[in-house]
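Second attempt. The first submission of Galactokinase had a stray character pasted in from the spreadsheet, which I only caught after the job came back as garbage. Lesson logged: always re-copy from the clean sequence file. Corrected sequence (267 aa) follows.
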Amino acid sequence: MSSSAAVEMATAKLLASLFPSTVGKLADMDIIQVAKAAENNFVGMGCGILDQFTSGKGRAGHVVFLDCRTLYFKFAPFKGAQFVLANTNAPHQLVDGKYNELRQHCFAVASAIKRETGSSKITHLRDVSSDLLAEHADKLSDAQRRRAKHIVTENERVHSAIAALKAGDLAGIGQMLKDSHLSSRDDFGNSCKELDVMAECAEGIEGFLGARLMGGGFGGATLNLVREGHAEAFAAELARRYQARTGRRADTVVFVPGNGAFSVKAD
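This time the job returned cleanly.
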């Protein structure tokens, strides 16, 4: 759902089709790495590889589990529900230093816990559990502790969500989405008024399971999980409620996971 990564990957696939003897010889992972480098080095966004990877490797009817360190990935089936993307039409701005500031907090915490434990295996917050973070919380500033808490619990939610998908536990996944949004709002600090209002407006609409802000936050859209067969009515009611609360129009898109970027040659 990352618009920049989707455009990068679609453009790369187009170039690979137009220039088969050069760009076309690149493997999928090479193209994904190049697209990420464009975001990091040209745009100046210190993002990871998740958006480009899923824009390139997506599979219809599935969600992707990705280990960003090893690039190991697998698919989990997605059925019985649909997604509704709800655009708040609030400005979506990440390259103003705020995203990179949050990122720096996370690396500072990983370094602090590595120093306190003496463990050379700790390089990122993925190496830190909730218990370990709590054990060393008194060595961190309030901002560091809260930013790190979001990342650590988000990692744990990913593993729980994969298990829930395999078990067909849609209600459980919906609750994880809600918990994720609250964590973004209260701990990571990358939500905004419009995103919070959109998430609140979704509560109580028939078929609604859970929602969280999408992507890097600071504006943009929420991702809503809705039981199959209810998505269109849900989207209409959500847009009505949001406009009544904010005076802003909400654009909605109903979708299910699809295939990653590809090129098609015209006849």
